[in-house]
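Entry 0007
Protein: Dual serine/threonine and tyrosine protein kinase
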Amino acid sequence: SRPQSELQVAKICCMLNFSVLVSLCVSGQLSCISLPRHEEDYLQNVVGSAPYILVLGQDCSARYQLLNCLLGERLLPLGSEVGGACGPEGGACRRRKLCFTHGRQTRLSLALPGQYELVHQLAAHCGRWDTVPCEDLEIQECEDPAQRLAELEVTLHHALLQEVKIMVLPCRGVQPVEEALEDCKRGILPIILYAVSKDALSAEQVSDLQKVRETLPFPVCFVWAPSGPSDPGALHRQLLSLELIGAAAGSCACGAPAQTQSILGESLERLQRVLGPFTRQLLQNQQVEATTLLNAVQCRYLDLFINQAFDMQRDLQITPRRLEYTREKEGELFSSLMAIANRKQEEMKDMIVETLSGMKEQLLEDAANLHFTDIIMSSNGESVSSKDIKMCISQIQDLIVVQLNQAVANKLTSSVDYLRESFVGTLERCLGSLEKNTAESSSNITSNHLKQILNAAYNVEVTFHSGSSVTRLFWEQIKQIIHRITWVNPPSVSAEWKRKVAQDAIESLSAAKLAKSICSQFRTRLNSSHEAFAASLRQVILQRVLLLGALADSCVSVCVCVCVCVCVSSGKPKMGRELGRGQYGVVYMCDSWGGRHPCALKSVVPPDDKHWNDLALEFHYTRSLPKHDRLVNLHGSVIDHSYSGGSSIAVLLIMERLHRDLYTGLKAGLSLKERLQIALDVVEGIRFLHSQGLLHRDIKLKNVLLDRQNRAKITDLGFCKPEAMISGSIVGTPIHMAPELFTGKYDNSVDVYAF
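Output (structure tokens):
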């Protein structure tokens, strides 16, 4: 049951981390990234798989002996009870495929594979039995084809069957091995056992084993039956030559157990000595593969986050200057436009006077020739009522407004176009010059947004061309001034009367008041646009600050995933005596772990989420950095839920153990040559970290470890962060901290100061 419980742990780990990955894939900037289909299928298969023991063998007798040994009872007949022996190639055998499952009551039934149970009278149904009757094991000659393909399902109340199912495959003459394994390709974790009863495998048996490996690429455990081969060495050499088994497994380069290989075990009497470790390692390797895949996927996302942080940091270095420049230029633009609006009042008045003077005769002529609409006039031109007189006056006013609108608006538009080109155009060109060397469009988001704000605030061209806003207010003012003229009903609506009305209307217009009204509207528009621009700019700055997201949360997920993987593959390390204490943890001796020795064990109990995040970042950076001679190697990490009697959770970081730290070495005495070499080693380590974009931020004597040749290595990346993610936090050891650290604005030169 222990391997099965470990498999359940792996399933839970896979499901938790798989949900984390899915949530990452559908969030924000990662919507374009998805889990590769083959990786997703593999993880889903691992989560949904259950252990399934597949019993194969050279003949039915060997398979039945192996099954009885697994269950610890004589459930299948042996020897002469079995009946006729299998032929040299199994051609004479007629015994069915057997499936063993768990149930409260013992029962036998025939069922089509993966379908339904057949109504069939079995010999076991006729009375009590301890051994499955031979008649039920064999296919009868009179059975129809459907019953010949049916498998015998045996339901038992057995502890082993609570955890796994067992299938005993038939001989090749009854059903080819590839057909028998067709239903075992998905949804199961096969544990393949092969019972050996002869000195060598026949060509047909070797062919069947090759097909098994093609169908199910899992290791095979070969077990000797009691009447096994007389020369086990010959069988071992044959299996080695056919590459059906491998040499001793050993450990991989990382210290974890190597991939599970097929083995030739001992006899059935010692099956537990072989089957237990074989099954446990097989299940553990499944967990390691799944968690390794999860870790690789999560590291890809984490690297993406870090790369985005570097891009963002570059953007944040440029954007504040760009924003400050934009704010400054916008202020100059606003002040200039306000000053021009004040100065333009006289120019606008002169322009209106000039326009009216130049158009006066044409306006009077057009007014005299105006034909009124919707007014019934008498033949001699006398009006019918005062209402008609007002309508006539209104139409004359509209004529003047329309023609003046066209003339004056054209001149105003050309003037405003000049202002726009002189000021807004200048600012846009400045922004464009800042962006022309940028290859990625994502870094231009702020400038594009600012240009949109500027266009929305100062694009007066559309206003004048569309005749809305200022233009409408301008001509409404004209009409209001004209309406204030006191008219006397004329004796008749003649051409002279129309000219008189038009002339009085034109002379009543005040160019000074119109110019003042236009400038007032222009200043109001500038003020509102300036305030909107400033508010939008503040919002852009706030968004830029908030873009420094919680990268460490993703590191925690990676840390947990890898810890489960390492704990399963290498086990929990054993603590030795205490070597030293730091601000956040205790360092212990560890004789060996994961095939490596000697080791040091750093035990850290994170008190809150912030320390979890910092520890996760330390784990990620130390683990993901390329191996370097001047950095202490991290072998692995394990999360210990039983630390301090289960009252707290500790993270155990297993790393290489060195001889002493630099502080102890200096006290013991070091020659000048050794000191210079140590200084060069530390510089080399710092340069390597900086080349990877990382700041250590806690370079000190106790964080420099020495080996027995007094060569130095840097350790403790607890405060290490990418330069792109430095948020101004004050960390480190005070006596070694650079002064600029206390300002919150610093770069990698703080490591040089500490050195």
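Curator remark: The two ends are 54 Å apart (CA to CA). Residues 219 and 261 are 5 Å apart (CA to CA).
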